[in-house]
Every structure is written in structure tokens, then in C-alpha cells.
Amino acid sequence: MDQAAARQKVLDVIEADDAVALTQELVRIPSIFPEEAKCAALLAERYRDCGLDVELQEVEPGRPNVLGTLKGDGEGPTLLIEGHTDVVALGDERNWTVDPWGGLITDGRLYGRGASDMKAGLAAAAIAARALRRADIELKGTLRLAGFIDEENQMSGVRHFVKNGGADGLGAAITVEPTFGLGIGTCFCGRSRCDVTFHGQPGHTGIPPQSIVGKNAVHMAWRLIKAVNETCPPHQPHNLYGPSHWQVVSITGGNSNEATIPETCTVRIDARPVPGHDANSIWAYVNELLEQFKREDPSIDARVQLVEGYGTSSWSTDTDSDIVKATQRAYRAVVQTEAPLNQVTQIPPGSGHTLKVSTDVHHIAALGVPCLNIGARGANAHMADEYVLVEQIPVLARILALTTLDYLGFR
After folding, report:
1. Rounded mean pLDDT of 52-77?
2. What is the DSSP letter of 167?
3. Taking the CA of residue 354 as centre, how many other CA atoms within 13 Å lie in the half-sphere pointing to its CB?
4. What's the whole-model pTM score?
């Protein structure tokens, strides 16, 4: 069987309605981390329905990764297509105009928490694998699907997978995040966090702040908060992503129920370094700022502590790599145009403010495995009225199926 005939055979067995229906099934399961178990169970059941060998890999009690394998004959590489089963919280539910767990379809959009980020991608991957089985294609290489827990938090699912050898021998990996929509992304920023804790001197709040008795740690922190809000760490902006950015994500200190001057205040900073910008240099710059503040106010006492387990490095995959070329050919065959390549999301569109995210495959790319991103386009991820474009879900399934066929080879 030649490539064209095999492609057509696979495409003929992909039912668009099935891809959409599976997305709805997944959306209707609330899986706000750490409550991923029911979603993992459904995905495992659907993997079995697709003819995959299934493994539930418990990362933490009641929190399993779900893995599905379609084995080849051993003569080809191994391809991982992955997504995550957890979703973020709803926020203020009064802002939702639809049932966040309803999977409502209207005006070409499928609504619900996780619809875009990223249950549409999980569904499309499963339907792609099922198509290869239904078409009775004998692959040379092995296809693995994964639904990891905890991507929206510490990425403990993929870290457990890597630590236990799951990434050993991988030829390539695809994440079906919505980051680049129905385009190919081969270049991602990193992420890092640190806590800066200011140490003051407690005292009665009846003491004026100008007194030498009592030092308010919350007041000490304002200089750093202001600097983070108004400046960027020194670096060379990236040609796709522009400058790195950082922002304060939490402030903790004092006791609101006591009339006591806050003795400590911790400021947590989230940094998104662009490729080529080392996160360590960001935190070195924070120490420089603190030294400057101390010269201005010798009473300032602060310590910088990296948040362990949160950081990921930026990465990029050569656009001439086999997996990128296979995905481009699959896209061309399905959509009849060239795939958009590294068209970085701007929010709002055209603003120049680039979206800088980390995904599970950051931990796999760090091993030297060629990785890329392609997902179904939607909007409002992490916001109210999240949705995915219905028509893109089966298109993604077709692209993933043909990419797998091309990359792994067949008999």
C-alpha cells in the first residue's frame, strides 16, 4: 500500500461527530486539579475502546496518569502524543454565561472549562489512534498517548513519567495544547518562580511607621513590587516572543486579626524568560535590586528563595526535524494549505503582548527529544466561557493520524 492509499484509508474511518462527542464527554467531568481521577478513568476506557493497551500510573494517591499504547513492529521510532487531564478552577461562576461543565455547542463553539485547554486535544488524539486501528494499519513504530495530571500546577504527572523512564527511547513528542491553535509551534519560553521574604521587626500598630521601633515588612516589599511592575530584567528580546516578563502572583504577610506590625512579608514572583534568557540571571538581578534598596533603606532585610519544582527551561525544535516535516505534510494533506509555523499568540490579537506558557513537553524537550505543539483553536482558556471551535477538533484528529502514519511508518 502506498502512502496516498494509506492516508485515505485512515481518513475514511475518522468520524467527526465522534471526536466532538468525546470532547463533550471529557468536558462534562469536572477535573480541577487535584481531582483528575474520573477524567483519567474515562480516558482510559476510551483508550481501550480504541484498541490501545492501557496503563494507569498513580502519581499521587487517587491521581493517576493515563497511558495508552499502540505497538508497532519495533522497526520504527516511538511517538508520544500528550495532553493533561486537569483544568483550572472556574473563577467567579457569575461570569459564566453557560454551564461550565455542560459541553454546550452553539454557533460552532463547544463551551466548558477545559474545552480548549485541553480536552479537545485529548479527544482528537484518541480518535486519531482509533483510526489507525480501524484502518488496520500495521505501524513500524509505536504510538503512545498520555493524559498527565497536574499540568496546571507543578507538572508532577509528566515529571513522574520522565523519572520512571517513560520518555526513554522517545523519537519525538507532540503536545496538543491550544497554544498555537491549528498551527505548528516549535519554540517555547520557560518559566520560573521565586519567593522574596522581607524580615521586619514586630511591634504594636499604634506605633507610627516613622518610629525607629517596629519595622513593617509589608512596607519594605513595596519597592520590589513597584520594580517588577515597571521594569524587565536586563536581556535580549526574542525575535518571536519579544521581551521576557515577570509579575507578582502573591503577597503574604502579617496577621489581619492582630494589631501587630508585620514581621515578615513574602512576595512570589513568576518570570517567563524568552529563549536565550537564563532564569538564573533574573533572580540574580532581583538580588541586585535588593542591594540597591538596602542602600536606600539600611533596615531592609530580604532573602530570595527559588520555588523548587516549578521551573522549566525554554526550548526549540529544528524545523527540519522529521516530526516537524511529518506534521507539515499531514497538515497539507488535510487542510490543503501550508501549516502556520510559530505564529505566537498575542493577547489581545495584534497587541504585541505575546503569550508565554510552559507545557508538559518542556520536561521531555529538556531530554533532547524533538517536540512540537499543535492543537484546536479556541479562546478564553483560564477565563469564563472557555470554548473550542467545533470544526477544528476532527481536523486535528486527522492531522495527528496522518502525522503518526508518516512519522512511524507502516507496512
Report:
1. 94
2. T
3. 21
4. 0.91
